[in-house]
Amino acid sequence: MNIFGHRTIRERLLQQYIDGKVAPFLLCIGPDHVGKSTVMRRYAQVLLHRSHDMEECGTLPSAHPDLVHHTPQIVRRSSGARTVASLGIDDIRALSVPYRPHCAPYRVILVEAADTLTPAAQNALLKVLEEPPPSTVFLFTTAHPSRILPTVRSRARVILFHRSAPETVRAAVAADGVSGARCKEISALADGCIGRALRMARDEELYRWYRDMTETGNAIVTMTTAQRCAVAAELSRDIPRAREALEVWMSLYRHRLRRHPRFATRLAVLLRTYTVLRDSTAHPRLILEAGLTAL
Asked: DSSP assignment, residue 117?
């Protein structure tokens, strides 16, 4: 199965494995859907199956005696809004029970969206990282490194994932069976994030949603206060999707910034709104209304 983008990172990880220099703790940082999880899942396969080729690895198994794999879980708040669940101390203890691998060269603990770890859970993790279990490798990904405690981050080998070039995104979308004008449009909407592009290529509803959010991002600066509040009310029902909409608009405004410096202020407002929505326990509708009316 082909894998697109981040070739230098993939080659470096594979060479470290071949040389027997596997780092016990990797922290992968980059935008959502940029490809961090894809590369780490393939690298986990390398570690579990003694493979020397990430493209041969295929899909990560749903069950393996030497793999612990945690992906973000969606839950509902008391308000009814959907949000991402946090990982607590008990989760970390379950993830890091020390034992030697059963049948693979390494025991792999893969945590996607490691920023969902609570501060208490991260402090509990520190004790494990100070004396890591034998032949155990921790693979963490995050799009929000500011939520990782400095003491945890200092113990990791940090890998930075950047947005892929437009031609790389187009190649990934084309390989998924999409061609022509639609391939170009999806690649543009993805803004260098291959995972986002492939999600749109495979999900017609999501593709339309991204187009709609791009149109909304273009129009919102001319909307009335009532119209902006209506947009905020709709987005507040689904917090992960609201954050994704803010990401779409921030990408849009970053590109606008090159020609229109006034978008710097709007971009700062969106970033502040995104951060508060992510970190605050305040009602999401109020957060979004405050942010959107300030644009």
From this structure: B
- Residue 262 structure tokens: 């006034």
Assigned token pair, 260: 């229109």
Q: What is the Rg, in whole angstroms, of the alpha carbon atoms belonging to the chain?
A: 20
In angstroms, the CA 39 to CA 289 distance is 37
User: Domain for residue 284, yes or no?
Assistant: yes
Please report, for the domain that includes residue 124, its CATH number.
Answer: 3.40.50.300
The residues pairing with 83 across neighbouring beta strands, listed in sequence order, are 75
Look at residue 273 and tell me if it is in a domain: yes
Domain that holds residue 174: 165-202
DSSP string, 207-230: HHHHHHHHHHHHHGGGS-HHHHHH
Label residue 229 by pLDDT band (50, 70, 90). very high
| 106 and 137 Cβ atoms separated by less than 8 Å | yes
**Stated length of the chain:** 295
1 within some domain:
no
Q: From CA 31, how far away is CA 251, in angstroms rounded?
A: 11
> Which residues, in sequence order, are bridge partners of residue 159?
28
Do 266 and 210 fall within a single domain?
yes
pLDDT grade, residue 98 (50/70/90)?
Answer: low
Q: Is residue 2 part of a domain?
A: no
156 and 178 both lie in a single domain: no
DSSP SS3 for 76: strand
Same domain, 44 and 186: no
* Closest by CA position to 292, among listed 218, 221, 240: 221
C-beta separation of 36 from 111 below 8 A = no
The answer to whether 269 and 295 are in contact (CB under 8 A) is yes
Q: What does the pLDDT look like over 122-133, one tens digit per residue?
A: 998 988 888 888
